[in-house]
Structure formats: structure tokens, C-alpha cells
């Protein structure tokens, strides 16, 4: 039981020698340790520095020198510069993207599955227009959108207005009229 009273912490950490607590009382030199074991009651929670040589307080000296300066000698506050370079990342056109839902999180609650279905069916109907207005080989940069997760007002993203898209849609519609009975 003396092992538990004298070096409980050391035993938990595995630093207490095997016979340290079995043969001696408090204050005796345990074999293998540099200092004698102290009783647990001698330990306190005080954080006051004990006597002896302490490190030099350079920060305190600098604070005293800074406080002693006159107000006119203080430097003016420096400007903080922030440089941001736009990323040069591009992707191919996303013909079925719902940017308000996917990028910014605007939903219609329980009606969202129906709204997403309508969005998909509508995009399938105008796919020839979208393919001609936004060719598949064209790079699209996301610099026109706000960053994901930022609070943005609700905005409806529409395909670009192009004559080539209208002609392609009209040609496909005319071809389907003549192809299907």
C-alpha cells in the first residue's frame, strides 16, 4: 500500500521502481530516483514561482519602454494589404446544373423533388438549344458565380441568348415533327 501512497503518479506513468514504496517511508531516497519521494499532502496548487533564478522578462521590459514613449513618437498604423488571384480553373458546360439549389442551397422544401424533375425535363427539351449556344468544347469559368456557401440573393440562372441555339432548337423541333407521325 505504500507504493500507492508514495508514488501513485509515478506508478501510473511507469516511472516508479519496483521496490520503491515497499521498503521506505516518506522522505527517503528511493533507488533509481534523483529526488526523495514527497508525501502527497506536500503538493499544492500554487503557481507562484518558487525562489531561485528565474528567466529574464524581456516582454515586460519592452512593454514598459513602449508605454514610456510620447504619443507623437508612435508609428502610424500600417495598412494591411490583401492580394487575391482569381483561379484559372475551367470546366465544360454543365447542361443540367441547378445552380441555385446545388451551389447556394435554395430549396422548395417538400416540393423540391418535383421542381428538380421539372428542371431536368425542361433542360432535356431545350438541350439542342443549349448544345448550340454553349458548345461542349467551350471552357466555362466560375468567376461569375458567388463562392459556395456565401449568402447570396436568389437568382435564376438562364442559358445565354444566342441565335445559333434558336436555329438548332427550331431544326430539331421541325425534324421531330416530320420524323414522328
Structural summary, described in words:
This protein is mainly α and 181 residues long. It has two domains: 2-38, no CATH class; 90-179, no CATH class. It is built from eight helices and two strands, in the order H-H-H-H-E-H-H-H-E-H. It has helices at 2-6, 8-13, 20-23, 58-67, 99-102, 112-125, 127-133, 163-179, and strands at residues 90-91, 140-141. Helix 7 packs antiparallel against helix 8 (163-179). The longest helix has 17 residues, at 163-179. The chain is elongated, with a radius of gyration of 38 Å. Mean pLDDT is 78; it is low at 1-5 and 18-25.
Keyword list:
single chain; 181 residues; mainly alpha; two-stranded antiparallel ribbon; 8 helices; 2 strands
Helix content percent band:
25-40%
**Main sheet?**
2 strands, antiparallel
User: What is the overall number of helices?
Assistant: 8
Query: What proportion strand?
Result: under 5%
Low-confidence stretches: 1-5, 18-25
Give the strand order of the largest sheet, numbering strands 1, 2, ... along the chain.
1-2
Structural class: mainly alpha
State the shape.
Answer: elongated
Task: Offer a concise description of the structure.
With 181 residues, this protein is mostly helical. It contains 8 helices and 2 strands; from the N terminus they run ααααβαααβα.
Amino acid at each position: 500500500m505504500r507504493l500507492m501512497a508514495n508514488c501513485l503518479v509515478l506508478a501510473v506513468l511507469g516511472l516508479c521502481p519496483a521496490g520503491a514504496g515497499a521498503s521506505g517511508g516518506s522522505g527517503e531516497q528511493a533507488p533509481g530516483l534523483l529526488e526523495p519521494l514527497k508525501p502527497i499532502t506536500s503538493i499544492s496548487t500554487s503557481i507562484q514561482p518558487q525562489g531561485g533564478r528565474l528567466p529574464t522578462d524581456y516582454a515586460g521590459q519592452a512593454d514598459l519602454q513602449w508605454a514610456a514613449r510620447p504619443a507623437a513618437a508612435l508609428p502610424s498604423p500600417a495598412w494591411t494589404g490583401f492580394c487575391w488571384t482569381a483561379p484559372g480553373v475551367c470546366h465544360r458546360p454543365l447542361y443540367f446544373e441547378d445552380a441555385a439549389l446545388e451551389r447556394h442551397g435554395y430549396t422548395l422544401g417538400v416540393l423540391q423533388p418535383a421542381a428538380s424533375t421539372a428542371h431536368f425535363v425542361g433542360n432535356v427539351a431545350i438541350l439542342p438549344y443549349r448544345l448550340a449556344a454553349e458548345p461542349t468544347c467551350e471552357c466555362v469559368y466560375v468567376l461569375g458565380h458567388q463562392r459556395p456557401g456565401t449568402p447570396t440573393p436568389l437568382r435564376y440562372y438562364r442559358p445565354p441568348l444566342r441565335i445559333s441555339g434558336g436555329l438548332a432548337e427550331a431544326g430539331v423541333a421541325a425534324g421531330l415533327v416530320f420524323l414522328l407521325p
